């Protein structure tokens, strides 16, 4: 049976592969060893052949790609825990970066992210979020693909020009709401959002690879700059989670997960999360287990995670908490109550006494029952514990199996181009105003007048077919009807998932 040796308390503590999809939590104050525990789990899943995704907030997880350094202290811990066949080794790693500087660019389209998550990124109020819903609905109805921020900005401009028509059809759209969304788009663009929205969009299969030896690829997202934009960071992680949920098939309980995600700074996922979105996130976390996905939250305190989500995290690694204030003391007691009790251990007391490299550990054992919590010495990772040099990162990036696929951006025809072409065509069709006719004589055909203008019957027929500047003609009306029909047929094929993103 595949398992991961986490550490040793009264006995060795293992995380069983068949319960790896039951989710988990790594918690503890800053500097207590959370990153080490995360690396141990990531390496363990990789050795099982399970692909891993994690966000590197501080830059210290990049060392997963390098061989660790042996030392007397390291060998002493290995002997104390009783790790067999321990040797320092590197892991197969692919680096990613929303900005494209420290790894392969990560992109998605505006349509795929959907209105719910985008509203959160833009920090829109309820009224503005409702307008954004209308924008996406119109895009779906008209068959306009929103790829990048230019596409979204163009459609907002189109709606502003046809606000009365759109309001009558889909709901009230106010000019102030459109202006507010446009201002937030400018801010998002300046924050780096222009790098995130575009193509080629990320294909989840590229996050679920193995190397030639059968080890799972560890995908490391450089997040040291991204974490400074907490809304973009958290919404990106939620988008990844929703993409997995929407696109992976049901597989039930497997001997090991298909992929494992580690979400560092978990509180950012839930801070200021609208109740409706939070409910859908809870639903995704609850149901994604059946698709073979394990989700592990990393945070300073367990109460950073909502109770409805915390109750679904079966595997726990709790590092030291500090109890300097009444709030801290309350958090310690709350954390202690989440563990399966051990009569030989005062959990609330021990949490504040744990040394660096120690943790309270409880994992799911046979039949999915949590083991009594143990105070354990955490096993050392086999890789380098620390940052890497720019040269080492570049070498790793050059060896990547997906570099040629994502490193060059592409720009295909989408909403911006189609709306620009439509506006140009309408401008060319606009009638040229003629000179005002004499008040006494009325309009008279000129020598060069067309047959339509000279013959009243022909002119009326032409106006009926092709319209005038004030009224559309039958041909134009039929064309618009056909376009609406085609758009509606397309929209029936466009389905949005539980978090509002476009399902592929």
Helix content: 40-55%
> How do the strands of the widest beta sheet line up side by side?
2-1-12-11-10-3-9-8-4-7-5-6
Tally of distinct domains? 2
- Under CATH, the homologous superfamily of the largest domain reads P-loop containing nucleotide triphosphate hydrolases
Protein structure class: alpha/beta
Number of helices: 19
Main sheet characteristics: 12 strands, mixed
Q: Give me the CATH fold name of the largest domain.
A: Rossmann fold
Q: Return the CATH architecture of the largest domain.
A: 3-Layer(aba) Sandwich
Instruction: Give the overall shape, derived from the CA principal axes.
Output: globular
* Number of beta-strand segments: 12
Low-confidence stretches: 444-454, 479-493
Q: What is the CATH top level name of the largest domain?
A: Alpha Beta
- Overall pLDDT score: 86
């Amino acid at each position: 049976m595949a398992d991961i040796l986490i550490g040793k308390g009264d006995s060795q503590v293992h995380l069983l592969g068949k319960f790896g999809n039951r989710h988990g939590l790594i918690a503890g104050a800053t500097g207590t060893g959370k990153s080490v525990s995360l690396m141990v789990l990531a390496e363990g899943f990789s050795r099982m052949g399970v692909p891993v995704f994690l966000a590197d907030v501080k830059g210290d997880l990049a060392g997963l790609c390098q061989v660790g350094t042996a030392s007397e202290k390291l060998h002493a811990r290995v002997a104390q825990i009783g790790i067999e066949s321990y040797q320092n080794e590197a892991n197969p790693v692919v680096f990613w970066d929303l900005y494209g500087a420290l790894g392969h660019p990560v992109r998605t389209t505006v349509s795929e992210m959907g209105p719910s998550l985008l509203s959160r990124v833009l920090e829109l109020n309820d009224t503005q979020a409702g307008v954004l819903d209308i924008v996406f609905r119109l895009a779906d109805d008209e068959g306009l693909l929103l790829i990048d921020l230019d596409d979204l900005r163009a459609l907002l401009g189109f709606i502003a020009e046809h606000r009365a028509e759109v309001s009558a059809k889909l709901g009230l759209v106010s000019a102030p709401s459109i202006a507010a969304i446009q201002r937030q788009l400018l801010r998002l663009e300046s924050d780096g959002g222009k790098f995130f929205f575009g193509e080629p969009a990320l294909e989840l299969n590229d996050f679920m690879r193995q190397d030639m030896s059968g080890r799972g690829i560890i995908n490391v997202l450089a997040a040291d700059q991204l974490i400074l934009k907490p809304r973009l960071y958290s919404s990106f992680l939620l988008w990844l989670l929703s993409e997995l949920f929407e696109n992976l098939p049901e597989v039930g309980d497997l001997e090991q997960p298909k992929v494992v995600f580690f979400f560092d700074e978990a509180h950012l996922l839930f801070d200021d999360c609208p109740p409706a979105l939070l409910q859908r996130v809870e639903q995704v976390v609850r149901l994604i287990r059946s698709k073979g996905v394990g989700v592990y939250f990393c945070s300073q305190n367990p109460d950073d995670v909502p109770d409805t989500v915390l109750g679904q995290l079966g595997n726990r690694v709790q590092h030291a908490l500090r109890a300097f204030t009444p709030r801290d003391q309350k958090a310690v007691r709350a954390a202690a109550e989440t563990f399966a009790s051990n009569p030989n251990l005062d959990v609330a007391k021990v949490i504040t006494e744990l040394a660096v490299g120690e943790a309270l550990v409880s994992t799911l054992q046979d039949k999915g029952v949590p083991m009594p919590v143990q105070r354990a010495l955490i096993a050392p990772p086999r890789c380098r514990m620390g940052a890497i040099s720019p040269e080492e990162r570049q070498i790793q990036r050059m060896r990547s199996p997906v570099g040629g696929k994502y490193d060059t951006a592409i720009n295909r025809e989408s909403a911006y181009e189609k709306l620009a072409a439509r506006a140009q065509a309408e401008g060319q069709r606009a009638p040229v105003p003629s000179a005002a006719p004499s008040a006494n004589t009325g309009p008279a055909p000129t020598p060069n007048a067309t047959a339509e203008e000279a013959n009243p019957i022909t002119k009326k027929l032409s106006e009926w077919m092709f319209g005038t500047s004030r009224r559309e003609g039958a041909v134009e009306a039929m064309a618009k009807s056909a376009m609406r029909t085609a758009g509606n047929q397309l929209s029936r094929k466009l389905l949005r998932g539980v978090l509002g993103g476009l399902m592929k």
